[in-house]
Each structure stands twice: as structure tokens, then as C-alpha cells.
Write a structure and sequence with these properties.
The complex is a heterodimer of chains A (347) and B (556).
Chain A lengths: L16 H23 L1 H24 L5 H5 L2 H12 L6 H16 L12 H12 L1 H4 L15 H10 L8 H4 L4 H10 L4 H5 L12 H17 L6 H20 L7 H6 L3 H8 L10 H21 L6 H18 L14
Chain B lengths: L2 E6 L2 E6 L20 E2 L6 E4 L9 E2 L6 E2 L4 E4 L8 E2 L4 E10 L7 E9 L20 H10 L12 H4 L11 E6 L8 H8 L1 H15 L3 E7 L3 H13 L6 E6 L8 H9 L14 E5 H13 L5 E7 L7 E6 L4 H4 L14 E2 L6 E2 L13 E3 L20 H5 L6 H9 L3 H6 L10 H5 L6 H75 L5 H18 L7 H10 L1
Helix pairs in contact in B: 3-5, 4-7, 10-13, 13-15
């Protein structure tokens, strides 16, 4: 009898890229829903637009490269990139900026390098930084959370703003937008207010910002879910949070008036999203576990440095991109000791 | 790495935890429903001449010869060698290339025997029942002559392993490997359950040969019956007073030699080294039984237990099989193939190799014939790009970075892959198993190893060619220099001659001038023209060979 020959191991493979990505997408959903609740329909509209753009761009490249479109879409990586981008940008971002951002992420940052697995930089964060530098006003116009929002927009009004660029009659941008908690803290500190004084601002909540802290908590939950599902390991999130927490703790101890509490840093801005969903992108992170600890810790420290002394209120994207550049070097210097190397043996 | 503990004779014993490794469904129950059977004498016996790592065997018989059961039919004088024996009596009908159980799938030289069904034994060497009274060299020679090799899959001649080189003879631990960590395989399990005494006898002989401080019998905790039987057998005998049955957690690849040594002793076999360097020798339980048969009964290695399993065979079971029995004659004895049979794998799913045809014979190291269904071993699906998820890094029991080696190999940077310790890869398959992108990493590493070895060979060849060319150039240069030196010597000699001749001429001229001080110019011119023929006449006196040299010298 004749049989086909294949190479070992001859096993039912338990893992797949699609499954890994699916867990990440699912883990992202509770936090994303909370954001829609707190910041309105804009988040949802952006997400749909971003996903559609991402799929279109992937399909375009696959057609140009004469490859099958479906498997590439079905690996869910482009959809995940789009979701992360849509969560990161302000809810009322003009539609063409979302399209430019996602197209940049997929076409230039990802596919130009060869597609999934080959990109040097985190596509969503590279696109975020591109837009932040090029369109600082649009990219920093955040809405207040629902409980502070005096002029909540309806779904139709939101559509009108995103696609038409015009606010509903009688509303100005100043009336619609509000500084984020990180912005408020930053501005306050630059005006020589103490952390305690700033904390009385309505924008700030128990730990971080009102609404924001709930979102952060849900991203933390999502992160724990991914850990449980083994979609990620603890190395990058724990080291990122630890890097940031250690810096925040030290400076808060030195001068509690000038440097906010550790909990503020952990629960504000995109810290949780960054630690669990963005920095954990395996493709652009170092390829050793030890390296990932250095990588995460460095991201955490950089977040603190840029938030505290840099030119931007939040710093996830910059920190991640900077460390993306260092990833290959970190990997090179953190290779584990191979079994049987070193004089090991005689006890 | 963190340690853990196991119970050993009501005492707590420390074990070490290997990094990496994986849990896979062990699929062992299927072939354990029945005790081991005995396979019938097949219609032909195919004995591959090379069933070991080392020097190849030369046939000792010719076509048409009658051979007896246990008769040596192939051997070599080399130290690292294991001869082969006829597993039943019959007539040699062919000596030539046949399919052999080798991953390459290429045919190899075999002796084919047509069995006569008589099972007539050859004259066996005397039993060494009281082996402690025998010289150790004689026992090792008996083991060598009996053709025993590592039966767990490595096929390294056992006699060599039992002869540690000078300076490595202080053996602390003799480890008897009953871990059997590969899924599906149960031949060692069944052997321990049914032939504990043979294993212990063999272990005792090896223990005597090596003078080991302790003998550790390691069994994974998914074989409770074997553990119980072995513990009882150890307690019931005084042959192996330094023996301990050590229960280790089930985790693939705990049964790998390097991994097992580390789990039991915390010692790491050095890169490129052998266990004896760190005072350890590991032997498989089947090898122990074969050693016992050879030493205590004089019987060579001519049969072994083979697990026939998978949804592709009707009644999975272990069989005592005569070596050389073709798989195609073995399968009908366990009910034949089912219509689910999708592949033929020799060995377990993790490290076994799939064969194209079932005409291959069972060899000394073939512990399992796995015929899985497509559900048991589905196709791996599309291969995606590596996303560096590091599952392979976490799973590697050798602490390698498989993804990194893979990227280097993909970009043809074989040297870099080598620097990342490619050659430490034991090809256990853990990385391929866990890869979400379904990249056949082990295959990449295997072929890169082969390519690297080829590179080394090519490099050595180039080096030799370069040395030869350099030696030739050097010789040519040296010869040219010698020639030149010779010529210059000659030139110098000629110059001297010329100078002497000229000096003589001048002297003569001076004399002539002195004799005719008032000669006019005309006469002088005449005189010089007259002297020319003289000069020309002088030239033929010099060596004709020196002429070009002289002209050359003038150019300079």
C-alpha cells in the first residue's frame, strides 16, 4: 500500500493565527463598547469606516500581488489594526483622516514591508502618529464623557460632523469638545497648580478621568481574558505597567504636588489599551521573553517621560514606535542560554 | 529553573524542570487494551545491513546460503558498529537494495531471507549467567556481537555506550529510560508490564559494566501499571540494590536523553558532548531487555516489541516482531488497515517519519508503526507568515529561539542560523506543533543542518584546493627564483669573463699605442675595425646557453 509522505510532527496543531487574533478582537470589544457609551456614536462610525478601509486596502494589495484575498482578510489582523486605530482617534475625526490613517497603516506600514509578520512598526500607532503630527487640532479634539457632555450629538448629527465637517446649528467646536484628563493635568501643572487642585476638576474621576477609568478597567479585563486564553503572555503588559508605575511612584514620592499619583497614570489615557493591546503586538516586539521585559519596561518609562516632560499629553504611540525601532537589537542581546552551553554539567 | 519533587521509597526526591516542552494527547490507551501478541513468521525477511549509527556492515553470506536463526549475516570490524543477524532460519534469496526504514525513503542494502519455518537456531555462545565472574571486556564484546543498538530510536551501538572513554568512566547515574513520552507508542510500557525482570537483569548487567553509583529507572506518570510492576520487581530482587524507580511528570519530550538527564540530575549534557562526560549513561528499557537476552542466554537481537496503532489499523496492539518482517505482513495480523488509514508513520507522531510504502521491514529501532486517520493527523493547512508570537520559544526544550533561526534560514543566512545554535536542535517537533502559522519549523532546521554540513564540506574542499594552488604557486615561484639565481650567477661569470677579455684587449691596445705612438686617426679606425673580428671570435667560446642571459642582463 502507498501512503503520502509528510514531515514530522504528525499532530493536530492546536494554534492558529486567526484564533489568536480573534481572542484579541473579542477582548477589545467590552472596552470599545464602553467608549461608544461614554463618547458617542463617533467611535462606532470611525470603527466601521476604519475596518472597511482596512479590508479594501488589504484586498487591493493582495490583488496587486496576485494573491488570494480571503485568507489575508480572515486572519483578522487588518481588522484588529483598524479597531485599534478607531479607538485611538477622537470620535469626531473627519472621515478622510480616518481613511488616510488606515490606508497609511495598511498600505505603507504593513503591506509595503511584506504584510503580516514583516512590519517593523505597529501599523495602528504609526498611522496615529502620522495624523497627530500632521493634523494636531483634529487629532486632539476629544469629546467629554457622556455625564459631562452638555451637548450630546445624535447619531445623525455625528454622521454629519464626520462626513460633512459641519457642527449642528448653534454649536461651536469649543462647546462640543473638552480637554482629556491627561490634558487637564498637563495644563494645570504648567500653570503651577498642584495635583490636588487639578484633581478637583470635573474631568477627573476616582483614579484617572471620569469615564476613562471605566474604559481602562474594561481593557484590563480584556487583557486578563487574553492572558487566560493564552493569546498574549504576561511579559509585555506587566513590564509596561511596571515601568510606568515605578516612574510615577518615584516622582510622586519626591513631589506629590507636581507629579500625579501612580493610579492616575495607570488608569488615564491609553495606558491599559497600550499595555495589553498595542505593545503586545508580537510582530514589532522583540522575539525573546527576556527581551520583551526590557521592551515593555522601556515603553512604560518612555510613556512617563513623554507625558511628564514631552510635548504631548499622552505617549503610548510614540513610546511603542520608539521601542519598535529598538526591538531587533533587544532581541539580539537577550537570546536565552541554549541548553548545554556554558560550563554547566558538573553541578 | 524551578524544581519539583517526587516520591521515591517514601522519601522525597528532587527533580528538575526542563524549560519548554508541551502537553499532547497521549493516545496510548488504544494499543493497551490487549497484552502483547506474537507476530507470525513472515513470507520473507528483509534485513537492512545498516541499522545503527556507525560503520556499515558487510554481508557475511551469499545468495543461496542457508542461514540459521540467530546467525550473524552482516558485520564490520569497526569499533562503532553493530552486526545484524538472521531472525529466523531460511535461505538467502537476495542481497541488494530494498526499501529500508530510513527517513530519506531511499532504498538501502539488505539481505533477504526466505524463511523455511523451521526456526532452527544457530549455535549460540555460552550464557553468562554469572556475569560478575566474567571479564567486562568479554561482556561488552558479547553485547557488540549480539548487534544491540539503542532501541529507543537512536540506534547507537550499545556496546560503545557501555565503554565510556578514558577519563569519563566515573559514572554517577545509569538512567534506564522508560519515559516513553511520544504519544501513541506503548511498546516500552508493555515491555515494563510484561518483562520487568528482563529489563532489571539487563540494567543490572549494565550497572556491573559501568559501576554506576545509582541506577534510576525513569517512568512518566501516565504509566501507573508499569510503575507498579517495576517497583515490585525492583523490591523483589537483590540484583540492583542501587536502583530507584523515579516517576516523572508526563510532558513531551521528557524522554529525550538530554532532557531526562536534566530532569533526574539537574546536569546538562554539554553542547556537542556525550552524557558520559557528566557521569551519566542512559539506556532504553528495550535495550536493557536485549542486553539481558544476549548476556544471560546468548541470544542476539532478532526481535522486538512494536506498537501497531492508530485509527488506520483495525485492532491496535503491541506485537513481538521478528526483525526484518515487512510492515505489509504485520498489519493484517492486527486486523488489517481500516478505510481511515491515511499515512504510515514509523515511530511516534512527534518525531516519527512517514513512509511511502509499507514494504519496509521492521528494524531494531522501530518501536511503533502508526497508521493514523485524517482526524488524528489532519493536514496542517495553509502556512502563514511568522508573527513572532514566541510560542516556539516557550516550547523549545533546548532554550533555542526557533523563530530567529527560521528567519535566518528563510533569508539563506545559514551561518547566522548556526551561530544561533541550530545544531543544538534535537528536532523534537515542539515548535512546529505549537506554531499558529503552521510553519514546518523542524523541516526548516533539518534541511538547514544538511545545507550547513554541505557548506562545511564545500568549504573544506575549497580550502584544500586553495592550499594545493598555493603550494603550486609557491613551487613555481621557487623554481623561477632558483632559475634566475642560476642565470644571474652565470651572467656574473660571463661579465667577469668579458671584463677580463676587455682588460686584456685594453692592455694590448695600450701596448700597441706604446709601440706606435704617432699613428693617425685613419690608422686607428682601421685598427679598431680590425679588432672586431677578434671580439666576435671570442663569443663562441662562451656557453651558448648564456647568450640570452647576457642579452637579458644588458637590458637591465
Amino acid at each position: 500500500m502507498q501512503f503520502p509522505t509528510i514531515t514530522s510532527p504528525h499532530t493536530d496543531r492546536p494554534n492558529s493565527v486567526q484564533k489568536a487574533m480573534l481572542w484579541v478582537v473579542l477582548a477589545l470589544i467590552p472596552g470599545a463598547l464602553a467608549m461608544i457609551w461614554f463618547f458617542g456614536w463617533g467611535i462606532l462610525i470611525n470603527m466601521v469606516l476604519a475596518i472597511a478601509t482596512a479590508i479594501a486596502c488589504e484586498a487591493l494589495v493582495m490583488k496587486l500581488r496576485d494573491r488570494q484575498v480571503k485568507p489575508v482578510i480572515m486572519d483578522l489582523s487588518a481588522i484588529l489594526t483598524a479597531m485599534l486605530f478607531a479607538i485611538a482617534v477622537p470620535p469626531l475625526l473627519p472621515w478622510w483622516l480616518t481613511v488616510i490613517g488606515v490606508a497609511f497603516a495598511i498600505l505603507l506600514v504593513k503591506q509595503m514591508y511584506g504584510g503580516l509578520g514583516y512590519n517593523v512598526f505597529n501599523p495602528a500607532m504609526a498611522a496615529y502618529v502620522l495624523l497627530l503630527i500632521s493634523y494636531p487640532v483634529q487629532m486632539t479634539s476629544w469629546l467629554p464623557p457622556v455625564m459631562l457632555n452638555e451637548n450630546p450629538l445624535t447619531f445623525a448629527q455625528t454622521l454629519g460632523v464626520i462626513f460633512g465637517g459641519a457642527l449642528p446649528n448653534g454649536l461651536t467646536w469649543d462647546a462640543v469638545t473638552m480637554a482629556t484628563p491627561l490634558d487637564t493635568m498637563r495644563t494645570g501643572l504648567s500653570l503651577n497648580q498642584t495635583v490636588t487642585e487639578i484633581s478637583s476638576s470635573p474631568v477627573l474621576g476616582e483614579f484617572g478621568g471620569k469615564g476613562w477609568e471605566i474604559v481602562a478597567g474594561l481593557y484590563l479585563l480584556g487583557g486578563l481574558f487574553m492572558l487566560y486564553k493564552k493569546a498574549i503572555t504576561w511579559h509585555i503588559p506587566v513590564s509596561t505597567l511596571a515601568g510606568l508605575a515605578v516612574m510615577a511612584f518615584l516622582f510622586n514620592i519626591i513631589d506629590g504636588d507636581a507629579y500625579p499619583l501612580t493610579s492616575f497614570h495607570i488608569f488615564s489615557g491609553a495606558t491599559m489599551l497600550g499595555a495589553f493591546f498595542i505593545a503586545t503586538d508580537p510582530v514589532s516586539a522583540p522575539g525573546t521573553r527576556k527581551g520583551q521585559l526590557y521592551y515593555g519596561a522601556s515603553i512604560g518609562v518612555l510613556i512617563y517621560i513623554i507625558r511628564t516632560w514631552g510635548g504631548y499629553p499622552d505617549a503610548i504611540a510614540f513610546s511603542v514606535l520608539l521601542m519598535n525601532m529598538a526591538a531587533p537589537t533587544i532581541e539580539f542581546f537577550t537570546r536565552p542560554r541554549t541548553f548545554g552551553h556554558r560550563g554547566a554539567g558538573h553541578d | 529553573m524551578s524544581n519539583f519533587y517526587t516520591e521515591d521509597n517514601n522519601q522525597i526526591r528532587k527533580l528538575w524542570k526542563i524549560s519548554g516542552g508541551i502537553h499532547v494527547p497521549d493516545n496510548k490507551a488504544q494499543s493497551l487494551t490487549k497484552p502483547a501478541g506474537k507476530a507470525a513468521i513472515p513470507s520473507k525477511i528483509i534485513i537492512p545491513l545498516q541499522q545503527h549509527i556507525g560503520a556499515p556492515n558487510e554481508p557475511l553470506v551469499s545468495v543461496g546460503d542457508r542461514v540459521l536463526k540467530g546467525q550473524m549475516v552482516g558485520s564490520s570490524k569497526a569499533f562503532i558498529n553493530a552486526p545484524v543477524h538472521a531472525s529466523t532460519s531460511g535461505t538467502v534469496v537476495d542481497i541488494g537494495d530494498h526499501p529500508v526504514p530510513h527517513p530519506s525513503g531511499l532504498p538501502g542494502p539488505c539481505i533477504v531471507i526466505d524463511p523455511d519455518g523451521q526456526e532452527e537456531w544457530t549455535d549460540l555462545p555460552p550464557p553468562m549467567v554469572h556475569y560478575a565472574t566474567w571479564d567486562k571486556t568479554d561482556i561488552r564484546e558479547r553485547i557488540r556481537q549480539s548487534g544491540i543498538v539503542g532501541m529507543g530510536g537512536a540506534s547507537f551501538p550499545t556496546s560503545v555506550k557501555l565503554s565510556p572513554p578514558e577519563g569519563q568512566q566515573d559514572i554517577q547515574q545509569l538512567i534506564i529510560n522508560g519515559a516513553e513520552c511520544e504519544p501513541f507508542i506503548t511498546s516500552d510500557d508493555v515491555l515494563m508490564q510484561e518483562h520487568a525482570e528482563r529489563i532489571i537483569n539487563g540494567a543490572a548487567i549494565m550497572n556491573y559494566l559501568l559501576d554506576a553509583k545509582e541506577c534510576l529507572i525513569a517512568i512518566e506518570d501516565n504509566k501507573p501499571k508499569a510503575i507498579e510492576v517495576m517497583k515490585k520487581a525492583i523490591a523483589a530482587t537483590d540484583k540492583l540494590p542501587n536502583a530507584h524507580v523515579i516517576v516523572i511528570p508526563t510532558r513531551y519530550p521528557s524522554g529525550g536523553e538530554k532532557q531526562l538527564i536534566y530532569i533526574l540530575t539537574g546536569k546538562e549534557v554539554r553542547q556537542g558532548g556525550i552524557p558520559a562526560q557528566i557521569g551519566v549513561v542512559v539506556q532504553n528499557v528495550s535495550t536493557c531487555a536485549a542486553v539481558a537476552d544476549a548476556v544471560l542466554e546468548g541470544k542476539p537481537l532478532i526481535s522486538r516489541l512494536v506498537t501497531l496503532t492508530g485509527e488506520g489499523v483495525k485492532e491496535p496492539q503491541n506485537m513481538e516482531v521478528l526483525l526484518g518482517t515487512p510492515v505489509e505482513e504485520l498489519v493484517p495480523q492486527v486486523g488489517g488497515y481500516t478505510n481511515k488509514a491515511s499515512k504510515l508513520i514509523l515511530g511516534g507522531p512527534m518525531m516519527g517519519f512517514s513512509m511511502r510504502s509499507d514494504e519496509i521491514p521492521v528494524g531494531k529501532a522501530n518501536n511503533c508503526v502508526l497508521v493514523p486517520s485524517i482526524e488524528e493527523v489532519p493536514s496542517t493547512g495553509n502556512i502563514n507568515a511568522c508573527i513572532r508570537c514566541l510560542r516556539c520559544v516557550d516550547a523549545c526544550p533546548m532554550s533555542l529561539v526557533p523563530q530567529n533561526m527560521y528567519w535566518h534560514i528563510r533569508s539563506s543566512a545559514l551561518e547566522k542560523a548556526k551561530h544561533n545554535n541550530l545544531f543544538d536542535c534535537i528536532e523534537c517537533g515542539c515548535c512546529s506543533h505549537v506554531c499558529p502559522s503552521r510553519i514546518p519549523l523542524v523541516q526548516f532546521f533539518r534541511s538547514a543542518k544538511a545545507a550547513n554540513l554541505q557548506l562545511d564540506r564545500d568549504q573544506a574542499k575549497k580550502e584544500r584546493a586553495r592550499e594545493r594552488a598555493e603550494a603550486r604557486n609557491e613551487r613555481l615561484e621557487r623554481e623561477a627564483a632558483e632559475k634566475k639565481a642560476k642565470m644571474e650567477a652565470k651572467k656574473a661569470a660571463m661579465k667577469k669573463k668579458k671584463e677580463a677579455a676587455e682588460a686584456l684587449k685594453k692592455e694590448q691596445e695600450a701596448k700597441e699605442k706604446a709601440a706606435q705612438p704617432e699613428t693617425d686617426n685613419k690608422e686607428e679606425a682601421k685598427a679598431t675595425s680590425e679588432q672586431k673580428p677578434e671580439q666576435k671570435a671570442a663569443q663562441p667560446e662562451t656557453d651558448s646557453k648564456a647568450e640570452p642571459a647576457g642579452s637579458e642582463g644588458q637590458d637591465e
